Amino acid sequence: MKIKQYIPSTSSIAYSVGVTLDRFIKMKQDDFPYASGELSQLLRDIALASKIVNRETNRAGLANIGGAFGQTNVQGEEQQKLDVIANIRFTRALTKGGEVCAVVSEEDDEVIDLQNGSGKYVVAIDPLDGSSNIDVNISIGTIFSIYRRKTPVGSPITVEDIMQPGNQQVAAGYVLYGSSTMLVYTTGHGVNGFTYEQSLGEFFLSHPEMKAPDDGKIYSINEGSYNQFEEGLKQYISYCKDKNYSARYIGSLVADFHRNLLKGGIYIYPATTKAPSGKLRLLYEANALAYIAEQAGGAASNGHMRILDIDPTSLHERTPLYIGSPKMVAKAEEFLKAHKEATANCN
């Protein structure tokens, strides 16, 4: 009997599909000797739910699941049908996975206690950010944060488990549902992106070791609210225009953030006269993206301090957000600080 040694083919007939998300997670499991595989399983549960949500969003126009649900969430925002569907899918996946003791969701007024005494993790999630854009076929996303619980396993969950600053995250990520579906996440050891191959039903590593450009020429902000901005921000926008920067604003947080992460830029959702605390939620939007940004070499601020150092005081707390290339974030903070100091001196 002849035995032939396998030699990897270099032929272009069969291209390499690369490393799957599942294999990548297993390869990186040694980064967490304390986790014993639970965090890896949790990431797989999130990936599974995102595949289901991806399917639902892709068939929304055919299955009559687009449009408003007819209720409002705790934010006072009109829920879309897909908001409700995504919330159910992710909560169900996290419940069945068995690694999570509690979930904080944009779509629920209160903490969801999964009644899982052995769960070591708390997940904060925006199941479907930007879902109002689904009817006009604009990219939307899922944003998630993962924390280790503070109280002993087996004990009831407490406020201490839930109200943790962003610097306590053990993992964070987002899923972008667009022309292609991508899952991007970090566990504190860099940022990696995976693209979904529909025919195989797998996420494949497509963007290893993602790095945010140190500087950029894109600013993303809803200038329709310009008259409500503080003066320092108005001056920064004028600076961007003088520099001939490009204004790019999709109005879908994950999509705007993802573009600027790859190409260099700043995303701003500021405080306004109508919303002095900003609009984005700290626990399940700003913290997750700030963690990703910093792991990719970027920066995230509320305009005056690092997002990840903010101690949350309420479940659905809001915050202004300046996030993206570090030099652009620093420059925006510089304008805000200068105006604040000038105002203080005048008084």
UniProtKB/TrEMBL annotation:
InterPro entries recorded: FBPase_C_dom, FBPase_class-1, FBPase_N, FBPtase
Tagged with keyword Hydrolase: yes
One Gene Ontology cellular component annotation held by this UniProt entry: cytosol
Domain Fructose-1-6-bisphosphatase class 1 C-terminal residue range list: 213-336
Top-level class of the enzyme under EC nomenclature: hydrolase
Sites where the protein binds Mg(2+) 1: 106, 126, 128
Keywords, alphabetical: Carbohydrate metabolism, Cytoplasm, Hydrolase, Magnesium, Metal-binding
Recorded metabolic or biological pathway in which this protein acts: Carbohydrate biosynthesis
Catalytic activity: beta-D-fructose 1,6-bisphosphate + H2O = beta-D-fructose 6-phosphate + phosphate
Record-listed substrate binding positions: 129-132, 222, 249, 279
Cofactor(s) recorded in Swiss-Prot or TrEMBL: Mg(2+)
Keyword Cell wall biogenesis/degradation among record annotations: no
Cofactor: how and how many bound: Binds 2 magnesium ions per subunit.
GO term, biological process aspect, one: fructose metabolic process
Pfam families reported for this sequence: FBPase (PF00316), FBPase_C (PF18913)
EC code: 3.1.3.11
Location of the Fructose-1-6-bisphosphatase class I N-terminal domain: 20-208
Gene Ontology MF: a single term: magnesium ion binding
Family statement drawn from the similarity comment of this UniProt entry: Belongs to the FBPase class 1 family.
Description of how the protein assembles with itself and partners: Homotetramer.
Name the UniProt record assigns to this protein: Fructose-1,6-bisphosphatase class 1
Record organism: Mongoliitalea lutea
